[in-house]
Batch of 2 targets.
Target 1
Amino acid sequence: MNFSSKLLESGVDALSSLPSIGKKTALRLALFLLKQEPGFTEEISNALLKMRRNMRECQRCHNMSDEAICAICADRRRDQQVICLVESIRDIIAIEETQQFKGVYHVLGGLISPIEGVGPGDLTIDALVERVSTGQIQEIIMALSPTIEGDTTIYYISRKLKDLPVKISTIARGVAFGGDLEYADELTLGRSILARVPYQNQGD
Amino acid sequence: MLLNKPLTLKLTQLKVTNFRNYPYADIHFCPRINYFTGANGMGKTNLLDAIYFLCQGKSYFQSNDKQLLLHGQDFLRVEGWFEKDEKRFPVVVKLQTGKKKQILRNNQPVQRLSDFVGELPLVFIAPDDTLLIREGSEARRKFMDSTLSQLYRPYLDALLAYNNLLKQRNQLLKMGGDNRAPDHALLQIYAEQMEQPAKVLYQHRKAFLSAFLPVFQDIYQAISGGHERVQITYQSDLNQEEFLSGVHKQLRKDLILQRTCFGVHRDDFLLDMEDQPVKPYGSQGQVKSFLISLKLAQYHFIRQHKNIAPVLLLDDIFDKLDPRRVDQLLAFILENQFGQIFVTDTHEERMAQIARQLGEVHHAFRVNEGSLTQIQLV
């Protein structure tokens, strides 16, 4: 792309260094910003700077946090005895959206995969074991991706926790709700049949 | 060996553009037998490979798709019209440099290759099949794996899971090299996760071989005239020891060699004739008969399981067989309905002789530097 202005070029370059933003989108965003009052760009820049400079990691669950302890961990109404183990912060947001979970979280920061260069030491597993060994935790819900790497990680952590009095569960895997059986992939459908559950009336 | 008459898969028309040495070809095939003759290097095998490419989404010979492009071209296209169960549908495979290979089945894009493979079954018998020739066990394991994967989906799933875990475990063993010891708990966990798929693979391979062996032996006797004793033996670490204890015992060795030294990834299928390995003790004709019998037994199981007769590609297989073996092979082909067959041979006369003996309806083509002319075999 040929720019008549060096200022525009460096602005576009900066924007296009963000994920999923190409040169054309970056140009559109830059031209949009130039059309607005200068104060608009300042507000955005300040918000980003403030976010970046002040963001902390929750000491307890490794979630993003404004304070030393995140808003979820600090919430007295939430059940502090149930921990939902997730791979990343995005998973917390997804689970929070469901409004089905009232416990607290623990962010692992990845899954064990030697091929990707990720070993147990690169994750927050020790911190989790420490949290559980205080004796305050009754259940850990493993909400990790249903992949081989996810399975290995669950297996590894459950082994580390085996001498502690904590119940370990995993989220159910199977056919998507509201989906059509006909369109479920074979692997999922096959496993759903093998791991079928006793029927429970919703009203119970 | 036949069941009630299975369906037949037929390729009625093939159009290739920029595939190997073919700039363009548009060919109508006979639903029974198609003969291709021509000198070496003219493109007979390439044509069969185009058919294989169309049915399996990859080449039989080249692992790199780029090698399939006609020299200097940046795209290729193979289109075929199939008939199956009275239905007629096109399959197109397109390849363009810098883009993902695209497969269209009945004008619908195929998302996953694993969903497509097995839809258009075929068996390719090539003369220098590396199966027996290669020293390593990999080619023989691959033959069993590809047969079993086509027949049983759980086998394919177990195979993918096992290989994935094995790769992770081996990588973990390698990480121990740079002055930190690999996590022993994690090594053990990989072993425990591998146990289930290892058992599935072991049991399937064992059970399949005991069903496969008599069929293979019958075919070998039929096409060779019944003299030599042939045997396939399944060799596996799991024959001697349970998976977990076996892995455990090899742990020290694993750490030194930085790979997993026990498991079904080391399985082999020993191919013997008169209690000697076929290679190097068998004659060229015996080795060839052995190989053809293996592939025809594979054909038998695919047909039986899918209840459809796969397309059979016979590339130059009559070469180096003595006339008696040729006669017996032809008699065998006649007795067992093989669906649609594609045959190549360098000798036009021998091919005409074969066509006379088989007596079936056929088309014949002369192949010359990437172009085809239909001929009458006399």
Target 2
Amino acid sequence: MIKPLYDVIVIGAGPGGLAAAIAAKQNGAADVLMIDRDLELGGILLQCIHNGFGVEIFKQDLPGPGYAQRFIDQALGLNIEYLLDTMVLDVIPPAAPDEHHRIYAMSKRTGLIEVQARAVVLAMGCRERTRAQIRLPGSRPAGVYTAGTAQRWVNVEGYMPGKEFVILGSGDIGMIMARRLTLEGAHVNRVLEIMPYLTGLTRNYVQCLLDYDIPLHLRHTIKRIIGRKRVEAVETVLVDERWNPVPGSEEVVPCDTLLLSVGLIPENELSRKAGVKVDPVTGGPVVDDGFQTSVPGIFAAGNVVHVYDLVDWVTEAGLQAGKWAARYALGLSTAAGRVPLKAGENVRYVVPHVINPAALANESIRLQFRITQPIEQPVMIEVRDGEKVIARKGEPYARPGEMVNVTLAPKHYDDVQKASALTVSVVKR
Amino acid sequence: MEEMSKLICITCPKGCTLEVTRDGETIIKVEKNGCKRGPDYAQAELTDPRRMVATTVRARGGIHPLLPVATAAPFPKPRIHELMDALRQVEVQAPVKAGTVVLANALGEGIDILASRDI
């Protein structure tokens, strides 16, 4: 039976949402509810049947559904409530101090319902960029799908979307699908990447493409999709530094299916409607070190904030958001962040966007960010207050496809207290 | 004769580019590894390459027609396609718990194939 009021309501029951709900419960929130639009808990992990999950958190190499299962079992063991096959339509923050967040949701079973929460965790994850969003020219036949759609068909529903594939984009899902389709008997002609470097993880290049002799064409994109009812071929082209097609480099590659693995976008329609401030660079909410958004009592965790490359870090963010949501719901913490974090040299963005220096008295804060271009030589990651370096860390290299992090520890408390803003930079050593 | 080759370690997501110097089958030294797992990976990759294999088998009576499964340990790379053929013959009846052996000692390699989730 659904209660009228919960301490914490988590929207989305993928890895971020499951972790947030578990942490909320473990940190004293008595009534915790997860709402998900899918038919089962676990989110997109359920279709990511490949291994490689949990290496950081469990020191074990688990398949996606196995990783999800651990958190599903834990959530059920904690008696966390959940609503499935239910779509959240609106999150409305309280208009007065004695009110709560109101959540409107729909399902076939319940119709329209309203539930209230003292704190909300947004954990809607992200969506794939589609053909329309990258403006691929040519006809519009069947056979053009996102890699994740193909993944769902092949791994969950049992359909093969084609026989002869071209994959656009060297993101992880694209490379993983290249291997998966090959194992299921299809032929993957090539993977095209418009950038001069791989956008996914290097290990996936080795075990998904090199292992199966699937060529990767860097600096290449699709000029035109050919075919009337069904894809018959794609015309590929080399691009220059400014992404302009190089005349004469065109090649017509016969295929019946084109998969797109061209980026993920945090899903924030609900956040925007709730009045949450969204960072135009990440596409996700502006958050503090407890993953609280610009709206007090609304937290956000996982790929809804910025797109991670490891689920382990999504879980970690979820745990943090859930803990702080519980503290907020119990009236233990309302402190908003004060010191903004700025993206310095070679850095595209930093999460969290703002930190509360008082938090450093007891615990460390992990800063996560992506860089703007590959630096294939030893680098130094620096957190500075003006010219003064507060924290630093060396790395052998830095690549845009791999999230970089640096930790502020309690020993940095005094320095951070004094700062009006901190800048994160990556400089060559 | 000693020769140096580059090898990308896939043990963890970091993906170090190892520089392996060897004389025929014998590895003389491994450099540029971020941790001690690098030399082990280089040794295995050059003599007995293995990979984790994840796929699906048919499932009856579950929420989906497929059950995701994976090898319990890395499987010899040259026999992966053979393993796929063997798993196409496997069918399970729901309910199945995560971790259940759906194919024991696959291809006689001493590696079990386990259900990745409950169904």
